[in-house]
Amino acid sequence: MSDSPRARSFPGASLLANVLAIIAGILVTLSFAPFEQWWLGPIGAGLLYGALRMEGGGFLRAWWFGVGLFGSGASWVYVSIHDYGYTGMPLAVLLTMLFVACMALFPMLWMGLWQRFCSRKLDVLSFAAVFVLSELFRTWAFTGFPWLLLGNSAVGSPLASWVPVLGVYGISLIIALSGALLWNLALRRRWWAIAPLIVLWSAGLLLPTDWTQSGGQPARVALLQGNLPQLIKWSAEGQRRAANTYAAMTRAVQDDADLIVWPETALPMLRDQAEPFLERIQATLPPKTGLITGIVERDADNRFYNSVIPIDDPSAQYRKEHLVPFGEYVPLESWLRGIIGFLDLPMSSMQSGDSQQPPLMVSGLRIGVAICYEIVYPELVRQRALSSTVLLTVSNDTWFGHSIGPLQHLQMAQLRALENGRYLLRATSNGVTAIISPQGEIIARAPQFEEATVTGDIRLQLGMTPWMHYGLLPVWILIALLLAPGLVLGINECLKSRRQRPQDA
Hints:
Layout: H1 13-30, H2 40-53, H3 59-73, H4 76-82, H5 89-103, H6 105-117, H7 123-140, H8 163-188, H9 194-202, E1 213-225, H10 236-252, E2 259-261, H11 271-284, E3 290-298, E4 304-310, E5 318-319, H12 333-336, E6 360-362, E7 365-371, H13 378-386, E8 390-395, H14 405-420, E9 424-428, E10 434-436, E11 442-445, E12 452-462, H15 466-470, H16 473-504
Parallel strand pairs: 1-2, 2-3, 7-8, 8-9
Antiparallel strand pairs: 1-12, 3-4, 4-5, 6-7, 9-10, 10-11
């Protein structure tokens, strides 16, 4: 830790700072859907910065921020475990608390290191850099959990025009930096902070709004939302209801549709079991109409894949690359399988698809696919967009119930559309099914928890956004520029302090 003076302390300061850290995490959650109070994001980041500057700050205080953030923002985990994971309430509560406590370790680690090694001088800059480093690390470590990224609040905010340039992590950097500047402005009367705040939040107005261009003729799409109950989905009754529901909904789609999309595992059966039914559906479609569905595939080695297929091309498929731990596979399966019902969910023994898979070619569209949880990974979707003219995500958000999870999921899909300048089609089991524009705006959507069909016209998009072209490179450069001065000063201060100790003794 730097030997620079700490913020002045007073009785109860440590407790107050811990409370502020928790509040900071909750405020960040309120900046996301469904609350969408984007202005609370910088305030939450500022409160965290201020709490860490107060006397007694350290690893534990950053952990309390994580508890506030994940305890409020990832509360849907309890719904998944208890309502649909065959787990009793006491154990579900315990597992949810354990999840929150573990996720809080990510900001604890990085913000604690920030306090230990970065100088108090220039800490406004280094705070923002380390905050984003914690998000990047959380995206990657232990298969990753890039949910609740600070930049997710950008949709509908003045920072939206930055998204195609810097991506969601660049927005996180701007918001974290803004929060630290706001704290210095409001609490420490550092009037110089006004200038960078104005620049950060107004410069985006000078950026282009359309980085990609529409090409070809409009394509008519129909996204089907069957709203089938999750608890009976994989039973014989669930299979019959799914087949009857999606067959009837498909017949009701007008003949002018170029593309029909069913959601993730729309048919709760294996592809080889569903082939006769899919052939009958294909025979009823107009010649120009393509149909895509989510389904489980089994290969010759009896391995299972969560897949998306065009029903008229037996050789084409996209197999989910990034599986959900415990939902689609069980880590340390030989040890954990069978301990509790949550570890024995249907279809929890999946295999990952290849990292390099071509887009699906349907109805003249090159479609880049992301299945469910994959849509929250910015870099994964960017790779899909590079070879595609349209993005598609299919999901089974029934696992979230009536929680805030599906609306957060939708918001992140909007970010992916905006980052890559592509139309994005989102077909879900019970909501929110939607068509999203290249500007991240929802063109059409279905209500949640209803059987519904969303129709609309889309265009294939040509060209690339800066995010597509450069990816994370600009963000890494900005992190280095913001972090290096404070880190160098902090290390020098630590070395100086160690040299002085023998002399003082």
